[in-house]
Design a protein that fits this description.
The protein is an alpha/beta fold. It contains 11 helices and 8 strands. The longest helix has 19 residues.
Length: 265
């Protein structure tokens, strides 16, 4: 890969996390069901008396919180959602330490099936060696676990910034999610010199294009969570949102970037 210079038209790349740099080797319904059972067990082990359908109530609260977050662009963290559910069950003063333990139990189910996407570390290393500024921007209800996975999967040494919607308060596609990352990459004044790589058109592609960034949509066959979401999408989501390029493996990003660099635009 050719090193970039200060005159190169593209200076930075921002990656989504799930279904992009990392994959899940299980479908989302199974992950959520396992996590809900784990969370419920943690709370009961701590002495809370919960109704038999508490795991189902938790999944319903998650869906509701996610729908609100998508509609408003404001993140609803997992901890806050759990506090609201416990309050509805008569636990008005939930111990923050218990809430943290219980949400960690929930994300433990995802952790068990999470893995770096094939070639992710190698791609980041090659881009960094070529001089690109690299960032990660994830819509997530848990900043803590995304930060943990960035370390666990070996991404951290190559990333200039690891940002999440929980930490920022805003979800993609809102500009408030993208701008802090662009600022960290010193590209806030020239977003056209940055590329967004992600799997979700309505979040990654639409938000980045609104700021003038180029976009690459990723579809990874190894990611079972992505396959499940695509099978459930009828009609296809956001047919009017078109990325500037599309790839089916992370290694495919390099020729796309080299072509755009050679074009000089």
């Amino acid at each position: 890969m050719q090193p970039i210079t200060s005159q190169s038209p593209i200076q930075g790349v921002i990656f989504d996390f799930g279904s992009t740099l990392a994959v899940a080797h299980a479908p989302w319904p199974a992950i959520i069901a396992d996590g809900a059972a784990r969370l419920t067990g943690c709370l009961r082990d701590a002495g809370l008396t919960l109704p038999p359908d508490f795991a189902d109530l938790w999944r319903g609260m998650l869906r509701f919180a996610n729908q609100l977050a998508d509609r408003e662009g404001v993140e609803r963290p997992a901890g806050a959602t759990l506090v609201a559910l416990l309050t509805s069950q008569g636990y008005d003063d939930a111990d923050p330490a218990l809430v943290r333990v219980a949400t960690d139990c929930f994300f433990g189910a995802e952790d068990a099936v999470r893995a770096p996407a094939s070639g992710a570390v190698e791609l980041l290393a090659e881009l960094k060696a070529a001089g690109y500024r690299l960032g990660l921007l994830s819509n997530t209800i848990t900043d803590r676990w995304v930060q943990r996975w960035a370390d666990q999967f070996g991404f951290r040494p190559y990333l200039d910034v690891v940002a999440t919607s929980e930490a920022l308060g805003y979800r993609k596609p809102r500009r408030e999610a993208f701008l802090p990352v662009l600022e960290r990459l010193r590209l806030a004044d020239t977003p056209d010199r940055a590329v967004m790589v992600g799997d979700t058109p309505t979040q990654d592609t639409a938000g980045a294009q609104a700021l003038g960034m180029r976009t690459v949509q990723v579809t990874l066959a190894e990611d079972l969570s992505f396959q499940q979401r695509m099978l459930a999408a009828a009609p296809p989501a956001a047919p009017d949102i078109q990325p500037d390029a599309a790839i089916t493996e992370l290694a495919g990003l390099i020729p796309v970037l080299e072509r755009w660099q050679a074009d000089g635009r």
